[in-house]
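Two folds, back to back.
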Amino acid sequence: MKVFISADIEGVSGAAAWDQIARDSAEYDAARRQMTAEVRAACEGALAAGATEILVRDAHGSARNIIHSELPREARLVRCWSGAPLMMMDGLERGFAAAMYVGYHSRAGSPESPMSHTMSVTLSEFRVNGRPVSEFELNAWAAASLKVPSVYISGDKGACAQARRLLPHIGYTEILEGLGEATVHLHPAVALDRIRAGAEAALKDRAARALPKPPARPVVDLVFKEIKRAQRFCFYPGAERAGANSVRLRCRDCYDILRAVQFIY
């Protein structure tokens, strides 16, 4: 059984502020080690459930965060960015039994985490067919287009709730909860125990194998925090200015959405 894991850092135990997860921060090493440990716990849960091959996608920042030597020997690791539209799901293909998500965070505009965002911190909101969406939703749609079910997520409470609205039977572990600019966290060791058990249970749960239906001909509204960024992105092929800070895209499919995301900066 082949299992894919997409890993972010804003939703791991201890992650509370932007400067803490930047590579030049004095606290970064602790954050990346907890990210590595939570990915390792998910791998261990997958192996206990019968996984024979695991592909981990380091999906935060430089994509050079996870310490590969601390993962199980069965785990291969995708590092850095290839430039392909799958981005946080790079390496996923048909034939994987399941996708899991570790360290994920709430969508842009959500009050559930002080580090809420969707794909780019330059956006205040990312809407598909009029509804704000999260990175998890975009990535789960991408996985579904390859016939790969998304069965498990760990991260902040908002991210888990948003995932469950899309996939009611998904396994999940709430690691932290936002309180305005503050956060409340599980003890790191407790987080590892729950992720390990949650990942194993999710892979064994047939109900969690449901595929979400990606939106057909999605209309995407990108609401930027700064007018100058909306002005720049409105020159993307097919983009329409929808407001002072917003740009609208009429996409063919989920892949088309992710291709456009690469040009947001």
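---
second:
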Amino acid sequence: MTPLTQPRAVVLGLVQGPAELLPVSSSAHLNLIPWLARWDWDRIDPEIRKSFEVILHAGAAAALLIGQRRVIADELREFDLRRAAVLALSFAPPAVAGYTLERQIEQRLGGPGSIAAGLVAGSAAMVAADRRPQERGHGEATALDGLALGVAQAAALIPGVSRNGATLAAARWRRFTRQHSNMLSRTVALPIIVGAALLKGVRLRHRGAGAELRGTLAAGAAASFASTLASQRLIMLVERDRALWPYAAYRSALAAVVVVRLLANMESE
């Protein structure tokens, strides 16, 4: 039996929603839950695993487009050349890094140990950045801010770092308020998620996918869409001028669980 069954796809899709909306690294959860549950995830083709992860992100992005449609509409009404420059510069670094380095990153940094390191590194960056003053707000993002967000998104290709956490840290480091940092984080994430989903969709179509795999991917995407749509209030939870350290603490605790499990595995060999 393949480790990627429809029930397991649904479980991971349900996890994707809240993990996507909080800076805790959804990709870390999607990799660590199967590992902790001993699902033999390594038996799955790495390209299929990554495609499944992107499909879950696409489901979450669709839910965000619906749930946050009024906020997005307000932003679009104010869209101008400055905002276009911010968006373009936030997109370029992760697009280039993802296209050129994705396979190497998957091969070398996809294990539990490297994910734990990414969780801890991302936590440290979030805590350090959140100490910065909250001086900037709506409409103040510049091209340099867009580049900083783009570099953060490129760094988030490392498993465990978290795109949401990295962009929140970058925005807070640039002295944006916590509320606007969240808005910037969600805004710059959507083009990357859509682009990655399209790229993976093309690759999956070229290599072919059986009816069973398509059904499993669809089940995961539907669960991700539903859980994200149902978890919209988590956005308000993060935006209410809440510090980032509780999320950093959770990430560090998850990393500690991984380390304990790795040590136990080493002792049993």
